[in-house]
Amino acid sequence: MAPKPRLEGKVAIVTGGASGFGRGIAAKFVEEGASVFIADLSEDAGKAAAAELGCRFAKADVTKREDWESLLSVAFDEFKQLDVVVNNAGASYVNKATENVTEKEFDLVMNVNVKSIYQSTNTLLPYFIENKKPGCFIQVASTAGVRPRPRLTWYNASKAAVICATKAMAVEYGPHRIRFNSVSPVIGSTGMTHLFIGKPDTAENRKAFEALIPLGRGSTPADVANACCYLASDEAAFITGVNLEVDGGRCV
Question: How far is Cα 225 from Cα 236, in angstroms, rounded to an integer?
Answer without folding.
Answer: 15
